[in-house]
Amino acid sequence: METKIDIAALCAKRGLRLTAQRQAVVEVISSSDDHPSVETIHQRATVADSKIAVATVYRTVRLLEEAGLLQRHDFGDGSARFEINQDTHHDHLIDVQTGKVVEFLDPELEQLQKRIAEKLGFKLVDHRMELYGVALDKSD
């Protein structure tokens, strides 16, 4: 579901300087198909730069988050997880056994949420939906 966004170009556009270590972090985030934690980002970044410190990763992620380029999630596994802040809305389904995160968008569900808000006297301006489940055994 996620389209690749050039974070490095967005950093340049916003005047954020990318050192070699920041560039390594940005490349890891840009190439991630999952929602990695800082620890996972650090582990992946050390492939490009074995001397990159976890503190550098934390600072870079915070910088990107404050610039509005990353979105933080808490999927209940004890670690903040991150994804590129996209212009398009989507929701998440989290497998509680594996931690796998599935992105989805259901227009019918979106309309239902809007109707519920209106029924309760609100205009829906934003929302975040996270569903938690376990994968069904396909052999049943």
TrEMBL record:
Coiled coil: none annotated. It holds the Pfam family FUR. It is found in: Cytoplasm. Keywords: Cytoplasm, DNA-binding, Iron, Metal-binding, Repressor, Transcription, Transcription regulation, Zinc. It comes from the Bacteria. Belongs to the Fur family. Homodimer. This is Ferric uptake regulation protein. It comes from Parasphingorhabdus cellanae. The gene is fur.
